[in-house]
Amino acid sequence: MVSRGAKVLLIGLLGMFCQGTQLPPPKPNDSADGVHVSPKVRLRDGRYLAYREKGVPKDQAKHIIIIVHGFGSSKDMNFLAPQELIDELGIYILQYDRAGYGESDPNPKRSLKSEALDIEELADQLQIGSKFYVIGVSMGSYATWSCLNYIPNRLAGVAMIAPVINYQWPSFPESLIKKDYKRKLIKCAVLLAKYFPRLLLWWVTHKWLPSNSVIEKNPAFFNKRDIDILETIPGFPMLSKEKLREQVVFDTLRDDWLVAFGEWEFDPLKLSNPFPHNTSSAHIWQGYEDKVVPSQIQRFVTEKLPWIQYHEVPDGGHLIVHYSGVCEAILKALLLGEQNLLYRPRSGVSVS
């Protein structure tokens, strides 16, 4: 049996993959009961995806960006890009609720490929053009990897912010991941989700679900700068006991977890450069002190895929998307090719 401490860490780890995409407080134009009706598109299979548009009008935009939220989040996630930069560069931003999240319909056939095809069809329905940028945050990065594999011809460029790692990727050497305790915790969570969903539901809604404050102040997951950020942003609304007791919420989170950390149909570390003529670019942004995904693993990924540019926040944890100036640097690197020297990876660090 897993110890009580390991159980708390496991549930905490489940929560960590939604932390990078915290929901903002309700907007003033939300209704009194908290319900906010968003525009939707109807997909070929009959499902509806809800979306949200920001920035300049799409017919005036010079850059089209689709942002993919992570585990337990929604299209209302925060992306702290300065409005002045958005206006100056002519950026149109499209955020959407992934299948089963927020106001979008569930997809009982969710897969790696379906995540990419949802993005492609959403773009086509809204007529935003033949090419667009994709930014994936935390666990939303698995949809970004899927886009690189299944729809590379539609991509103007990609960025992944503190992307999660699937320890089952076959190209990972055992020496790199064998000492990472999170590998076993994630494997345990996958087994529970796949074979014992009722037990998992009971577990997370009863005795073993720690309070948000326990998760948020746990130094096992956050560095000091992360903990300071957590004082200023909301908690984990999708992981409350009340929400998890809703079958559609639990099923969505369970299916999303299984796709992200189950067996993939392709090995990301064997992907070819989709931008061989340097007309576009791919980026990974990582905190050096990230306690959810170790920076040495991200370094290994980008060493195997040298066409992905690696940026590292030196005192950053897993919440770098909330750090002042980071989103601005992400946009400038992705859209303009500018390299901010503050986020150059420190040299002399081994990945072995």
Automatic annotation (TrEMBL):
Transmembrane segments: none
SUPFAM superfamilies recorded: alpha/beta-Hydrolases (SSF53474)
Entry keyword set: Signal
Signal as UniProt keyword: yes
UniProt-listed InterPro entries: AB_hydrolase_1, AB_hydrolase_fold
Domain of life: Eukaryota
Domain AB hydrolase-1: from-to ranges: 65-322
Pfam families attached to this UniProt entry: Abhydrolase_6
Signal peptide: 1-20
The protein's name: AB hydrolase-1 domain-containing protein
Species classification: Eukaryota, Viridiplantae, Streptophyta, Embryophyta, Tracheophyta
